[in-house]
Design brief:
The protein is mostly helical and 547 residues long. Helix 6 packs antiparallel against helix 7, helix 11 runs antiparallel to helix 12 and helix 11 packs parallel to helix 13.
Length: 547
């Protein structure tokens, strides 16, 4: 496959990573293999590996013997484009200006299909750098604007100019416009980037008429990707929106982000973000809290509002808090204070207050939802869809299945009531945040497909045999299968897997499981290549063990 064909496939951005993952494993040419790796590392936020691969490409492609191949000059310029995107901040300004000048000097020696990528990158760099040391690149050809995969990035460059000029509302509108321009490609990276920037600036600059965009961003992040490293920044924007708007469900997105932090690169940038999220990660099993100075100041303000006779806590308890005699405060005392002063969730509240408010919210929702639950034919399926979308390990799903079949509602409710995580799962059957609703939708599509092929009971029997980690892999496989099945590709997916595969063993294994579920084999291949090497091996082991 030549570079032009590869770049045509890559018009869909990081969403196409399973195909590039597949190519990288099958490729023999060293430079092309490095090109694939470079893009994968960039998408997966593996910056150290990314720069290593970029430097390798630049070194090889700078050799005079190598540069006789025009494609190698193109790969070198594309590597510089990728490198500049990661370096484009104030600390690396001089390095980026140097790259910009090299791109400009080599521009006329590049084929048209590479020029479009380089030109749009240069326009975006120019907007970010905001310096007189370089000149903006002019784009005359209509082909730039006709290519929808590139059009949105031109719009983003205009949006950045407006933001630089403090025209925030116009910038927000242009970012959202750019996202919508990518809808038909489709280019999920551009869609999410546009909505992400629009959401971020709407919250940061208090344009609250756009504040609902975070819900759209949250749903689409869950719909398009399972790869946490790709969507972590989008989720941070969602988290920041929840925080700004005092949304009590912030604990759900914060818990997900903290529970998956191992998938994020360890660097200062992400450390700061994780530390920020940690403040809203609540240990729901706590029954008492160590009193901090800020907590006592909060309680002092509360107690000033009313006399001791009108609140539900004793004078002794109140004095021990105010006079700093108590080191800890119990959950039931906090709840009495909450009830006395009608305290509602605010992100500025002390953590002990918010922790109890969240627990009370979970308990109230559980009491409400469990009161009208009925064991109709599809109730287990509703639980299963939620279980598979949350990747929640707080219950034994096979035990739940047996209790429902026995119509044992009392025992079922008791199991879910056992801890806050299982109550959250139960509540999510009826009401969830957009991120998990998107995942649930994808799982629903896979289960419906299995049912249409009369494979549902086989699937249930198979699923119950898996341990928790194996279930997690299958959940991801199901979600990714639907992500790619529902995508309109501009290239022949079947042809890619037919013409580029040397190793037939993995194909035979995936064919086996796709037949078992009644799935399309080529979208099953794509879902399989969403896994990195360790998980691909784990998935093959599942097939070997149980099929």
């Amino acid at each position: 496959m030549n570079l032009k064909e590869i770049l045509s496939i890559m018009k869909m951005g990081s969403f196409i990573y399973p195909i590039i993952n597949f190519f990288e494993n099958m490729e023999e040419d060293d430079i092309t293999k490095s090109f694939f790796r470079m893009n994968l590392y960039k998408w997966f936020e593996k910056n150290k590996d990314f720069f290593k691969e970029v430097d390798k490409i630049i070194s090889i492609c700078s050799d005079e013997k190598t540069l006789c191949k025009r494609s190698h000059l193109s790969i070198k310029m594309l590597a510089l484009v990728r490198k500049s995107a990661l370096l484009s901040n104030k600390e690396n300004k001089e390095d980026v200006i140097k790259i910009y000048k090299e791109l400009r000097n080599n521009f006329n020696n590049l084929p048209d299909y590479v020029r479009t990528i380089v030109a749009i990158s240069m326009k975006n760099l120019y907007s970010k750098l905001d310096t007189k040391e370089i000149n903006d690149v002019r784009i005359w050809s209509e082909s730039y604007k006709k290519d929808k995969s590139k059009l949105s990035f031109l719009t983003f460059a205009e949006a950045k100019k407006e933001i630089n000029n403090k025209n925030y509302k116009k910038g927000i509108e242009l970012f959202y416009k750019g996202a919508m321009e990518s809808w038909d490609v489709p280019h999920p990276t551009a869609i999410l980037n546009g909505i992400d920037f629009a959401s971020w600036y709407s919250i940061e600059k208090n344009f609250l008429e756009f504040s609902s965009l975070y819900g759209e961003l949250e749903f689409l992040a869950g719909y398009y990707y399972d790869k946490i490293s790709i969507i972590y920044d989008y989720l941070y924007t969602v988290f920041s929106s929840y925080k700004k708007l005092d949304k009590i469900d912030i604990h759900k997105i914060a818990s997900f982000m903290i529970n998956n932090k191992k998938q994020i690169q360890k660097n200062e940038y992400y450390k700061k973000r994780i530390d920020s999220v940690k403040k809203f990660y609540y240990d729901l099993n706590k029954n008492s809290y160590k009193l901090k100075k800020s907590d006592i100041l909060f309680f002092e303000k509360c107690f000033e509002e009313d006399s001791i006779e009108n609140i539900f806590i004793s004078k002794v308890t109140m004095n021990s808090i105010l006079k700093r005699k108590a080191s800890f405060i119990k959950s039931n005392t906090i709840r009495k204070i909450i009830s006395s002063y009608n305290i509602s969730y605010k992100t500025s509240n002390p953590q002990c207050i918010n922790s109890e408010l969240i627990k009370m919210n979970i308990e109230n929702n559980f009491s409400h939802f469990s009161s009208f639950v009925s064991f109709d034919n599809d109730f287990f399926e509703k639980i299963l869809l939620t279980y598979m979308s949350l990747d929640n390990k707080s219950i034994d799903i096979s035990l739940i299945y047996n209790l429902i079949n026995k119509n044992n509602k009392k025992s079922l409710i008791k199991i879910f009531k056992n801890n806050y995580n299982s109550m959250i799962l139960f509540n999510s059957i009826f009401e969830s945040i957009p991120f998990f609703n998107a995942r649930k939708y994808l799982i629903r599509l896979s289960i419906d497909e299995i049912k249409i092929k009369n494979k549902y009971h086989d699937f249930i029997s198979f699923y119950f045999k898996l341990d928790e980690d194996e279930k997690l892999l299958l959940n991801i496989f199901f979600r990714n299968y639907q992500r790619y099945k529902r995508t309109k590709f501009s290239f022949n997916l079947n042809k890619i897997f037919k013409n580029n595969s040397k190793n037939k063993l993995w194909k035979n294994k995936i064919d086996k499981i796709s037949r078992f579920f009644g799935f399309d084999q080529y979208f099953s291949y794509t879902s399989f290549w969403c896994f990195e090497e360790k998980d691909r091996k784990g998935f093959i082991e599942i097939i070997n063990k149980f099929l």
